[in-house]
# Entry
Amino acid sequence: MKIRFVTLGCKLNFAESSAIGKALLERGHTRAKQGEEADICVINTCSVTDNADHKDRQAIHRIHRQNPNAIIIVTGCYAQLQPEQIAQIEGVDYVLGQNEKYEIPALVERLESDAAKAAIGRSQGELLAIGERREAKEGDEAMRRKGEIHVCAIREVDDFHGAYSKDDRTRCFLKVQDGCNYFCTYCTIPYARGKSRNPKIADVVIAAQQALAEGAKELVLTGVNIGDFGRSTGESFIDLLKALDRLETPMRHAARNLHKSFCNDSDCIATAPHFGNIQNATAESSVNEARGERLEAKGMDYRIRISSCEPNLLTDEIIDFVAQSKHFAPHFHIPLQSGSNEVLSIMKRRYTRELFEERVKHIKQVMPHAFIGVDCMVGVRGETEECFNDYVDFIKRLDVSQLHVFTYSERANTRMLELDVCIVPKAERQRRSKILHEISEEKTRTFYANQTGREAIVLWESKKEGDQMAGFTENYVKVYRPYDKEKVNTFEVIRL
# Structure
């Protein structure tokens, strides 16, 4: 059967979709090609904001229009939180929760069986032929019957299912943790993904080695709250990092040959998003060999990035380890959410802005050129004008590289809706969001400007952008060069 996957939201979703897709391919199914109608469509949803829910619904409608005869399976966070709502959408056949999503390969097998080819079982007990249901007249009640719902209670979601993405061989999202025990007042994630859990370090190492053996050169450690790793196994996040830093891979000696191919003068251009060119990135022939030796010395047969890690869990020990590691990139993504301690308290966050600032200062002390991305939320209940102005002043003085700005939206069943605090009008939320976006652009400009003249290691991506190809340095500077198929998925030393 021809399968189409649509994945929305976070890196965790992409890792899980890839793992399910891999299982289907191993059973003999194929991916539907671009423009080709699929037999089965799987939509893996996000529900972090009401805008995410809206995008989910848009995706479902679009996929149904494009694949009118396909069986549509909807899973993910939105499916766990709002299954009845999804089941009412025209075209949806199955709604599967967080536990049930891993049964998709078995479900597809059942649908491909002789009985399933002839009919789809509905929750009402009636069997309808696939074609018959799709060709039913608009007024036919059968056409509007809801999809089957298979969603367990969130308290029952306690198993860890390993996953890593393999659609893009250059960068691999490696799932190391799932769920969250924080229950911040604004957040739905604990209700959508369940309690914090993780595999054993030994299992993560095996998955990482498999991903590298399949061609990945960069692993991005992914989860809901990865700093919480070890809660369900009695291990620790720092021990995981140490284990991943000494992986045995078939590519251990690959870097030795990389010095043979470098950029020619003016080939590579470092570019900050929306800010134009900074400077030609060069690799002078006289130092090519030396750069190749340094690349080998750095152990760059693979590299690892740490995705979002809570500031209270990002310890000095972790920061110092990354600073001396051969494989971990000087790149951090740290959720702040608010620069006001008053608002952080309303949110039930587990740190103060002073702790956050200490973490940023320590990173910059041991890794001056590290990229630091920061999650920021605006417009939450309780964020007075005074709190927001205090927030802005705090953000401006932080030595960070980029802000990921989220506008607060009310989420059903979250505790913030019960709080007796001020409500920020939607128009004001948008105004505040614009202010933080402008601050982010300025900080990214400054960060990129400070990279000029530095030597860096780029991993070239597979995607072709016109006649160019892009890549990222270890500290997440995006650079471009003329497209060269031979350079895809290779490391290269350049000067920014």
Notes: The chain is about 35% helix and 20% strand. The longest helix spans residues 426-449. The chain has a mean pLDDT of 86.
